[in-house]
Amino acid sequence: MNLDPTTGSIISEEEAKKMIALFAEKFSNQTVSSFIGGDNVKKILEQEGCIGIRIYNGYDEVAQKISLVLVGVNKEEEDILKNGIIYDRMATCPPACPNPKVGLV
After folding, report:
1. Which of 18, 40, 64, 92 is at a distance of 20 to 30 A from 28, taking alpha carbons?
2. Exposed (0-12), middle (13-18) or buried (19+): which is 14, by Cβ within 10 Å?
3. pTM of the full structure
């Protein structure tokens, strides 16, 4: 697959809920979701040559939970590492969970 600024697919709410439920079933006691502020997403995307964001699954040894790592990607499909902006330590659910009346969980 070639990476470009339009990589990714829109899915339905039903598909999203099913995927989230299956994850919870397979990986109980793991982080349900992670939140990163829009300003921080913009900081990644505004890096010179950045066409998108790669999201790595990491593991926080202290919290013993899955932890996402976000890094910008250039048109050569390379992570932007030298002086690049890399994020982790987002607000996770639990404890910062969405309102169950309007969230996916």
Report:
1. 40
2. exposed
3. 0.86
